[in-house]
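User: Structure please.
Assistant: Input sequence and predicted structure:
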Amino acid sequence: MVKLYIISGMSGSGKSQALKIFEDFGFFCVDNMPLQVVLDFIDICLKNPNSKYENTAISIDSRAGESLACFEDLLIALREKNIKCKIIFFNASDSVLIRRYSETRHCHPLGESLLEGIMLERKIIDGIFKFADEIVDTTNINVIELKELISVLIGVCQCREQYLNVSILSFGYKYGIPNDADIVYDVRFLANPNYVRELKFKTGKDETVRDYIEKQEEFKIFFNIFSKLIDTTLPSYVKEGKSHLTIAIGCTGGKHRSVFTAIKLEKFLKNKKYKVKLKHRDIFIS
């Protein structure tokens, strides 16, 4: 049985690095495969069962040009051949894509100015984006984190045992909502420690801030309901085959209320035996 991953996304989002990671994990990888030859390639794979083609990853992106209009037809043909296909779309914010291009001094593949090229590319590959099974936002992750994430995705594909990796992210609304969040909770209804002089320059990691938030009756009611909701819904995500879930918790600046709530949720989920990763995106932004 051939297991096929289609790697796509924005130029500069890390999809080339992702393909290298797949190769490290033993996948047969092909970069920039023309749509017109994909089915012929699959036929070769099917004629060689239990071969190096059993786990395959191919890259299809904006370089395919006008042929991307036939992408849906390709997916239909793959289903008719009973090919298990999973599409992973790599993305990043425009500002990060521009910065990465500036650092590498590469020209955009569409030959436009950076911003114009990025905007045009987003339109071209929208036909792949809307069919994506997983969207990986690399705006705030490094290569090590990318490899860990891909290993999770591959692990779910390679075995029957289903498990859920939960990422909890605190953030500040003033800096924007995280692009990769599956669930977003707003805790700005709580009294803000930022307006208490002795707490202003502390964070949700500090005991005094914790005490200030926990004594609020609104927080007690909220977290009781909130934790029960999470505890109730996570098993259903596992049942549906979800391998990774990002829960983002936001307050105004991302330093007090969201940080403490994220810490408390992490402890709650670890007690429930979930694998949890905690990150505070904006805690050190001045």
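The first strand starts at residue 3 and ends at 9.
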